[in-house]
Design brief:
The structure is a homodimer. Chain A contains 6 helices and 10 strands; from the N terminus they run ααββββββαββαβαβα. Chain A is of the alpha+beta class. In chain A, helix 1 packs antiparallel against helix 2 and helix 3 packs across helix 4. The longest helix of chain A is centred in the N-terminal third of the chain and has 22 residues. The two termini of chain A are about 30 Å apart. At the A-B interface, helix 1, strand 2, strand 3, strand 4 and strand 5 of A face helix 1, strand 2, strand 3, strand 4 and strand 5 of B. Strand 3 of chain A pairs antiparallel with strand 3 of chain B, so a sheet runs across the interface.
Amino acid sequence: MTIHYPKGIKPLPEGKGVKKSKKLHLGHSAANRGMGFEADINESNAYYLEHDLCLVTKRPTPINVVKVDYTHGAKITQAYFETQSTTDYNGVYEGHYLDFEAKSTQSKTSFPLHNIPPQQIDHLKRVLRHGGIAFFIINCYAIGQTYILAAKDVIDFYEAKPRASIPMKDILSKGYLVKEGYNPRYDYLAVVKAHFLK
Amino acid sequence: MTIHYPKGIKPLPEGKGVKKSKKLHLGHSAANRGMGFEADINESNAYYLEHDLCLVTKRPTPINVVKVDYTHGAKITQAYFETQSTTDYNGVYEGHYLDFEAKSTQSKTSFPLHNIPPQQIDHLKRVLRHGGIAFFIINCYAIGQTYILAAKDVIDFYEAKPRASIPMKDILSKGYLVKEGYNPRYDYLAVVKAHFLK
């Protein structure tokens, strides 16, 4: 199965287009694919919202604002992107709290953990302690499939040093395949319903 | 009871200090008090986090990034504040999804609704439809008390045109008084436990 990314990705809120350009500028085509996957998750959320199936929102990218020019309205003239200390997505399904991160990997053999900041792991542990549903949705670009891996499993791998990645075989065995389609692009809610409700 | 706002409000994440300056610049002392209240809610959340009582995070202020200078790292040189289309806070308590907005009013007689955008009302309706717990925490500055009002009540008032505000007597009768203290500053979780769990 091949994933066809749209050439014209819809503009996303809060400067996502700019972030994408930034990554393109730095020559990270994988990051660009990552942005495409994020756009698809946003579209899936919009579908769920429109059809009243669940309510999941993307947290805006945190930005540290340093200078604002008030000459004509409020124009930010100096600011910097900050790292999200939580995950990108959270929301509610039938009263349950959902919290997840969407990631892409181009590796055929594993999902690298080095770009998951420790504070995100701490955040996910807290979500689980407070009874929330937490997971990663991992777009395995090279094999053309997307899996949901429970936060518990990701945390276990993260803490089993010195491993720096989750082998693809473990993603396939422990993860849940996410059905892809036109609308929703990634039906992650079906996996939540089938495997994450208590 | 008098509320003593600290003179030196702690710096907040994602350019809150700048937003505060912006409002000060515009001469809105009420807005400044509002920022003080928001800072207190953030501190209450930090207390709950530290004591592992619940997990509530503030959504970063959405910012529309227009230009980024990549000469030295990524410096945003043109951007604008956007209106939050959701609420400012959400999180999880014992598996339940929480979603709320923190507001201040300096009026002695009512809580004005004109600065609640319609999309925030839509958002709160969705939260309720999906089984989440939703409310406003309203700092009634003039009477030195803070009340939690269920989102349902705020929505009812909002839709009962041509009312443009919620009378203070209704806040007192329908709302739940939030206990103030040193730590947590506003113990809103006690109200959630007592009145919002099914």
